[in-house]
């Protein structure tokens, strides 16, 4: 019975897409099928100062897949602030875990929200993969797959900015214990050279591998 129950524990997935709609940020959720979670998620987005323009809901194998098109309530534009994007992600995950606390062991945020620590220590067990490829003459696509944790998005954007590379847009994909993020980046309005791409990969790899400490980073 316990094996059957574990098979039905939903995998929390939150995807924030900045590229598919030029005028709005798209938030896609894939989780359990409880209506209350959907209603509370919409309220949580509004409480963050966001407007849900439209949404679609489909159910497949008892998993609800929801897509919201959201803009800033005051601006009517897509969300560009990385700090707000991170708050959107964490707010949604926190809300969903209220309805499915049994999923906390499959999500890195479970420990962060004080629900239950993951079965595996994510920083040790999940490999980091970083790739850069050209995406036209004026920008490159940076793909990062690594162990998820609160603040990861902001920290990675800071590392990228510290070497004077511009982040034009980001797609933030949280899949259980793993963060799978994509960034459109450029250097002085052009795609990254091979040498600068290698510098970027090296900097991110160093940052993501280093042990966490209680001291402030400089």
Automatic annotation (TrEMBL):
<dbReference type="InterPro" id="IPR045865">
    <property type="entry name" value="ACT-like_dom_sf"/>
</dbReference>
<feature type="domain" description="ACT">
    <location>
        <begin position="141"/>
        <end position="218"/>
    </location>
</feature>
<dbReference type="InterPro" id="IPR002912">
    <property type="entry name" value="ACT_dom"/>
</dbReference>
<comment type="function">
    <text>Binds amino acids.</text>
</comment>
<protein>
    <recommendedName>
        <fullName>ACT domain-containing protein ACR</fullName>
    </recommendedName>
</protein>
<dbReference type="InterPro" id="IPR040217">
    <property type="entry name" value="ACR1-12"/>
</dbReference>
<keyword id="KW-0677">Repeat</keyword>
């Amino acid at each position: 019975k316990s094996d059957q129950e574990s098979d039905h524990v939903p995998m929390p997935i939150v995807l924030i897409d900045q590229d598919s709609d030029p005028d709005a940020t798209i938030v896609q959720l894939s989780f359990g099928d409880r209506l209350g979670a959907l209603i509370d998620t919409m309220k949580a987005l509004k409480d963050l100062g966001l407007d849900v323009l439209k949404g679609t809901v489909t159910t497949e194998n008892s998993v609800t897949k929801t897509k919201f098109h959201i803009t800033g309530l005051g601006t009517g534009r897509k969300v560009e602030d990385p700090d707000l994007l991170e708050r959107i992600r964490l707010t949604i995950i926190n809300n969903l875990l209220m309805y499915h606390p049994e999923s906390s062991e499959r999500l890195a945020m479970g420990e962060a929200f004080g629900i239950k620590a993951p079965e595996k220590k994510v920083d040790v067990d999940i490999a980091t993969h970083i790739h850069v490829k050209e995406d036209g003459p004026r920008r490159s696509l940076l793909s990062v797959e690594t162990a998820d944790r609160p603040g990861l998005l902001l920290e990675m954007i800071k590392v990228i900015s510290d070497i004077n590379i511009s982040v034009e847009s980001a797609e933030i994909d949280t899949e259980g214990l793993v963060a799978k993020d994509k960034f459109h980046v450029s250097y002085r309005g052009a795609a990254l050279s091979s040498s600068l791409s290698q510098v970027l990969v090296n900097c991110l790899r160093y940052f993501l591998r280093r042990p966490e400490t209680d001291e402030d980073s400089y």
